[in-house]
Here is the input.
Amino acid sequence: MEARDYPKIEDVLRSLASAVNAARLYPPSSDLPRQALDRFVTRCNEVTTELGTVRLLVDPHAFRIGETGLATAHAQTCGLAEGLHAMQVGQLVIAPSVQPAEAAAFVAVAGRDPRDIRAAGGPRTALASAGASTIAVIEVSLRSSTEEGLPGVDLINAPLDEVAHETLAAAARWHAAAASEEARDEVAAAIGQLEQATRDLAADRIATAMLRLSDEERVRILLSAMKTDTTGRPMRGMLDVIARMSPATIARLLRMASARCGARPQVLAMPLELPPEVAREIAALLAPSPRTEAECGVPADPEVALMAAEALAPGGDDELSRLKTAAGQTKAGKALVTTIAVVREHPDVDSVRALGEALAPAARSGALTTVREALRTVDSLIGDAAIAAERDRARAALADPEVLSEVCHAVSTDADAAIAGELLSGAGAGGAQVLLSFYARAGTSSRSLLRPVLRGMSEQVVGVAARSLRSDDTATALGTLSVLPDLGERQALPVVVAALEHLDAEVRRRAVTTLADLGGAESRRALAKSLGHWDPETRRWAIREVGRARAEEAISSLVRILEDINVLERNHELKKEVIKCLEAIGSRDALPVLVRWSNRRFVFGRKNKELRFLARRAVERLAATEESPKESMHRD
Amino acid sequence: MTDTGHPHDELESPSEIAAEIAPSVRAPFADPVRLAKAKELVRALAVSHTNAGLYPTSHPLVAQSLSELAGAVDDLRAAGFRDVTVNIYKGTLFVENQVFPEESVTYRRMVEELLGRGISALTFLESFSETDAAALAEVISDTAITDIDEARLALERRNAAGIDIAETTALEDTGREEEGRENKAQARQSYDAGVAAMRDVETQAKLGKVFEVTPLQNVVSSLLENLFRDPAAVLGLTAIKGHDDYTLNHSINVCILSISLGASLGLDAASLRSLGLAALLYDLGKVRIPEDILSKQGPLTTDEWHIVKSHAEEGADLLKRIQLIDQMPMVVAYEHHQRHDLQGYPAPVNQEQHLYSKIVALCDAYDAMTTRRPFRREIRPDKALAVLMQGRGKAYDPNITKALVAMLGIYPMGAVIVLDDATTAVVFRVNSDDLLHPRVKILADAAGRWYDEPEVLDLRLVDPSTGQFARSITDCIPASDAGIDDVWQYL
Here is the structure.
């Protein structure tokens, strides 16, 4: 047969495998098995008519012609080869003119359990008795010699089922002979005749083969092997093979044998020569449980259907989501809580060091209550110098500006402001610096939360603010000035006054505004004083802010500016501001000078006319205020 | 079926992959509304098939059934899915991985005709329309079309671009098996490396020395890598029960269970690494407890119990100075016995257990119960899970317990079961949509004869003649009772 014909044979094999599988998978009422069988018969007869009788070798996993495997990628065909091999089929022969009944007989045999087929005399007998003559099988037998029984079997290559079958028979023969004579240990003989190198392999194969037998048969083998012959020996070869089984298998076998013969399994185990670790394991498996399941609170009969339904029932996602979110947020706090517990249990240097390491992350995460507790715990430790040093280091860890900034942030969310104050103030000037910077950038709501902390640390913050205004850049200085009103007039005033001398005009202007914002008498006095500032821009700004703050302390200075009429001086803008400021202050003390300005009859130029107009308007308003002070107060 | 929110081909980060194995995604039909819609799809498909076979294409009944089929697909799309696959496996109908036992029987003719043409999967794509429905109905009821290739051509001729038909080829199965074996081997390597690393850590800790954490971190990373590639390969490792090295195996098992559970809850990769390390080290405090107390068979005296309980604080003490990615190992070591209701030890300071502690406590309890100990035999998995479910809201967080059961199934991987025909099998995959009917490998027949090659069986399969599940579980037994020492080899 040429290699080019192989695909046709593969096609036949595929259709045969499909027919076998269809017979297995579908009920007799289905048309599919019959259709598959018809397809096989048709294709088979086409091919065998063309090629003649086909003879195929049956390997464990494929059909072969010579060295060439056929349809090896087709799982069903390989499965068929495997099944036939398990029946000890060595060759499959298909002649032309296969009849549907013969094909059906083959399909029926191929679909049966290999053990049943072998037990019934083998596949060849089964096919012959079903009347198949155009499809035949050639069985193989792997005998190592012509000797009867297990010693005649090739223990290395023979199918495990054959080894199992012979092992069972060998045990039965021992059992029969032991009572009356010196029995022959066929297992020992079969293994003993092999080369040393293959004895372990052979013994393991027998042990594996025994698993192909039923529980009942294995028990029978064990009990037979334990029976002593007339010389007082058990079937040692067999017992040695059994000892090669896995501990759980041996324990199970002993339990079943015990149930059969009534002897305790531990007693039955005694003739087995087991390695110590295996013997220990088997003893553990055989020993009764010190505690029963009921004692351990295990239900005797779990309601599995209910459990499955509950496990797959929807719900709980929100809670899981909360847990996941909290898992990330609470890590650092949890670590600190645990470290505190460890410190209390083991108050040593390592514990304090661990606590120090846990402090900063916890503070960053906003676990401020825990941080305070940690500090109190560590402060309460009475220890040697090493502990004291670690304690200082732990506290120092909290002085990290980044950590302190996070503390401020935590307060602006939800943490306890008092604890934050404690931590910031514990960090000294560093804490004040961080607080000042954070506060300068914070929004209104955060500021209101942080205000108590700021006021609590006002002395430290003022010191830092003064330094900042002396040395820092414009933006920082402006931020610092925005914080100062919240410290209160008494603390802030000196710093703000100092800021009037800042090199940057923008800072000086903000300092003036801040003085107006402070609102107290001292501040107003300082504001009035600023009307004499060396910088005209600052002066003008001060006039405006005096008006906004209604600082009456400044009226005399303002009046002086207005009275100073010098035709050569072009300070209309300044005078405009002064008039507006006096109007805003609304004091009668300003009336005389304003009236003078409003009564000037001869004025030249647009700007002077504007000043007169503003003065008249101011006078009218002041007069109106005087007439109805209540209304004026109300308007204020 | 592809959820529109999580297209597989766009997955990138571990958290997205983790989300993919979250129970809600793995069981898309847990929601009764979605389930009803999937059933309607199967019904509409079968009715279209029948009507197309009985009436001419112009008949109003045909038009109506096609419209219903297109509508059923649209409904599922509206329920959040992009495409829907109807599978036929061993004569049983599935929509994705959801089995439909009754429909498998009711619509047997359609199933047989599809299988007769070698079609075992129909995928309704996003663009599926009434025209595609008409083409599909015509093709599957046309007796002249005998195989899948002809069916494909016929669909193409009819311009049916919204439907895909497929067969499960042996080649694909082989490829998957090969990949699975490789994943299993790699996962085992990680496991063994974990045991070795934990042995070193334990030795160092017993000697009072500071130990290296990097090898443990590598173990966790390796397990996670494997978990993202093949979750079953990693979860299956927990079937390994070392009785001699109980502590070591137990800590690796708890680590695997914890990261698997964490992934199913949707934790990101960084959190899973932290959780994994915590789960490896949570019981380290036991190195400071005398061995004779730990392995005592009888009940403990009050003093002994007090000593045993101190292992939580001792563990935290051991871990306090180790340079870790975070301090969660110390926290979990301290909290893992505090219980969900805070009635445990050490006395909680009125704070909720951390999520990681809850996860580790649950996984610790499950693995400990299912392992034989000197003072009691192993408890079979379904009973162990029942104990955990009973403890919901008390010892264990109720939602995390539910998630654990949904992840493991009632009969988890490695559970040894007896089927109603008295055969013995081992669970090798859990069906997330049906926790009571896993996929199993039948190892031995009713008489106790072991098969050469285990027979693979999906217990969701239905007997077409009865409409009932073909096989069902009658008992779950400890592996050793079945004569199995190492269940992992069968997974």
